[in-house]
Amino acid sequence: MRQFLALFKRDISIFYKSKSIFILAIIFFLLVTVMLPIGIGPDLKILRSISPGLVWIAFLLSTLLNMPLLFTDDFKDGSLDVIIIESDNPILSILSKILSFWTAVILPIILFIPIAGVMLNLGFDQTSEIIILLLISSPYIILVSAIGSAITIKTINSGLLITSLITPFYIPILIIGTLPFINNDFINFDFVRSAMLLTAASLLSMVILPYFIIYILRINTD
């Protein structure tokens, strides 16, 4: 546990020394949520009906924008071998890096979702439900993206490659996360059911995916 806390504090301090990391993520998220409604037009009903999906897409793209930062710096300075590869408990090291990334990048984006909700003509209830669903699914989102980051750790400018690799795995949670906001007679998918499925996906990913990440990192750092 001491190693977990020490690594968490180290990564948090690195993230916040380079303030541009989370600032750029927030700016990108807000720009996407501002520009998409302009392209859609002035119809508020149409905007409100597709806004939950727009928030999800902006959130996922903002996350992918920063995923190359998860392991690249540690790989370049050689500390990745000590932190994960030679660690007595590499699973805790992976979870610590995931938690620090969530705190420094994901949490600030989520805090700005209410502003995006206002710009997208979302009600308070819808905005609250979107925030809850994104919080629930964020472990899955980060861990799946971390696999892409581990695979492309030796690649220069790997952001586009990570996006290409990981986007197909985001489609199921994107569908599940937006179904509660679709109103028609054929789909009756409420918020609770969506939250349960996303919780299951996050828990399953937290149990399984760290082992895949460690395996990939060990192969790529040999």
Condensed summary:
The protein has helices spanning 2-17, 20-40, 44-66, 72-77, 79-85, 90-111, 113-119, 124-151, 159-178, 191-220. With 222 residues, it is mostly helical. It has one domain.
Kindly describe this structure.
This protein is mainly α and 222 residues long. It has one domain. Helices cover 81% and strands 0% of the residues. The chain is built from ten helices and no strands. The chain has helices at residues 2-17, 20-40, 44-66, 72-77, 79-85, 90-111, 113-119, 124-151, 159-178, 191-220. The longest helix has 30 residues, at 191-220. The radius of gyration is 18 Å and the shape is globular.
- Kindly state the percentage of residues in helix: over 70%
Portion of residues in beta strands equals under 5%
The value of Rg in angstroms is 18 Å
Please give the domain count: 1
In N-to-C order, the SSE pattern is HHHHHHHHHH
pLDDT < 50 runs, ≥5 residues: none
Query: What's the tally of helices?
Result: 10
User: Quick one: biggest sheet?
Assistant: none
**Based on DSSP secondary structure assignment, what is the total number of beta strands?**
0
Protein structure class:
mainly alpha
Task: Indicate the overall shape.
Answer: globular
Mean pLDDT: 82
Give the end-to-end Cα distance, rounded to a whole number of Å: 27 Å
